[in-house]
Amino acid sequence: LVVSVIDGTARFIVSVISTCTGARIEQDYRAPHSERIRTFQNDNDLIVHRPNTGAADGGKSGPNQVMDEEATLQKTVAYAKEQYPEYNNNNNNDIIGNEAKLIELAKNLICNELGGDDPSLLAEDFQFLFPVVGPLTKSQFIEAFTNFNVQEAFPLASA
Hints:
With 159 residues, the chain is mainly alpha-helical. Helix content is 44%, strand content 6%. It contains 6 helices and 2 strands; from the N terminus they run ααααββαα. It has helices at 2-21, 34-42, 69-83, 99-111, 138-146, 150-153, and strands at 127-130, 133-137. A two-stranded antiparallel ribbon has the order 1-2. A hairpin with a 2-residue loop joins strand 1 (127-130) and strand 2. The two termini are 40 Å apart.
């Protein structure tokens, strides 16, 4: 309750200041990529739940609540291949559902300071979203993240 009051108060103060000054926070008006917010909303059948994981009667009643990760991944990969054929059997080395290729790309990104050392690893329309930050464009993310040394912050981490 206290956090909600503080959050509401802060938002009210910011709205009053922005209304009085005409200030506009650009990133508050930048829409995130639709793929990030629509995938599971458009096709709720993508999420597969394990049977007998309801909330009552020892899991036997109520909607199942524990996701079956493997089955959900299979359905999501099939959906992505259908919706985004440009990333399947193309010059992108068939990355959709290719676990080894995705791990290789992720390790390369991590080893290059999440794109800070090599911005070419990030798409031109890259967006960084976090609960309290963003969406940031590629250039905004690179500018902010170049000053944040992942290896220094997490010296025991490895890719």
